Amino acid sequence: MKKKIIGVILATAMVATLFTGCSGKSEEAAAPATDAAQEEAAPEAEDAAPAEAEDAADATADAAGGDLASKKVGVCIYQFSDNFMTLFRTELENYLIAQGFSKDNITIVDGQNDQATQTGQIDNFINDKVDVLIVNPVNSSSAETITDKVVEAGIPLVYINREPSADEEKRWEDNGWNVTYVGCDARQSGTMQGEMIVDLGLEAVDLNGDGKIQYIMVEGDPENVDAQYRTEFSVKALTDAGFEVECLSDQVGNWQQAEAQQIVANALGQYTTDVEVVFCNNDAMALGALQAIEAAGRTVGTDIYLVGVDALSEALENVIAGTMTGTVFNDHFSQSHSAADAAIRFINGESNDYYIGCDYVKATKDNAQEILDMVK
């Protein structure tokens, strides 16, 4: 229950300005991301209702009638070494146990970033006749295959963190399947990254005085929709604000700190002082970028700017110290709790929205300590 209480404290402390719970995706947001849709601004965080969210979670647990201890939950994580997914799976397990599941009946497996490995794990869960599956897919493009085999087995399915395509989600709805996705809209996180740079002002960021912002982009996984949207919308926030931009380097770091360190080191060596901003799709890569920046003798906040996503503890500490410009809180509390609640509703024979969305939160020097106190 400790983590559950922490989640409530987090929501209460950040009400109206920092945090909202998860909700069903609007009909418009659920549509395929056409060019017109991508022109819309990412969703703004609405005022939170922490007490109502807590009551809803309690009601979900009560509805289970204390029968959850015998239910088997299979959880597939794309890769255990991912920092954010470590936070997510730990909180997910704790919350499931708090709702009445037996720890012995919760099995969480490491896909080792290999889709064939994860597919085999899903097959094993199907053979084991688990009562619900929670899947963080290695490749979002494999969702159709995963969905077909899990639905055929009659097992409810909750996707987390890595969103399948809009067409795939529509397929669930058209067929009335017990499948849902729980996660945040990555367009919002990218927009927030860009806004943190915009908020500094052109004069501060345009270090070489040429009237435009030169940047390095370090992407996560090119097949991952979160990486695609964070890449696109971080830059879009700059251009929407009237900033002229120039991309000096756009490389794939596969969410890994070491790969990002090498990418940024190479870019800084090639473009030297022309690099004004480094965008990273997650904090692990931002930490690698920071190592390269410091090794090159550059100073964040003085002659370069750096932003990430996830609000890992180390990243938040860097934001507080001024060695990172900012990050975006990827709320693993709300997401993991909502995924568990959706699983419980399926077990109870109830339905879920086909998209259960959560909001990101900007983490800057103004609020990083507050977020750090709550996530540690």
Question: Summary?
Answer:
With 376 residues, the protein is an alpha/beta fold. It has 16 helices and 13 strands.
Overview of the structural elements:
With 376 residues, this protein is of the alpha/beta class. The chain has 2 domains: 214 residues, Response regulator (Rossmann fold); 143 residues, Response regulator (Rossmann fold). The strands form 3 sheets. A 7-stranded mixed beta sheet has the order 1-12-6-5-4-2-3, sandwiched between helices. Helix 5 crosses helix 15 and helix 12 packs across helix 13. The longest helix has 16 residues.
Beta-strand percent range: 15-25%
Number of domains: 2
What is the CATH fold-level name of the largest domain? Rossmann fold
Helix share of residues? 40-55%
> For the report, how would you describe the main beta sheet?
7 strands, mixed
Q: For the terminal residues, how far apart are their CA atoms?
A: 15 Å
**Average pLDDT across residues?**
87
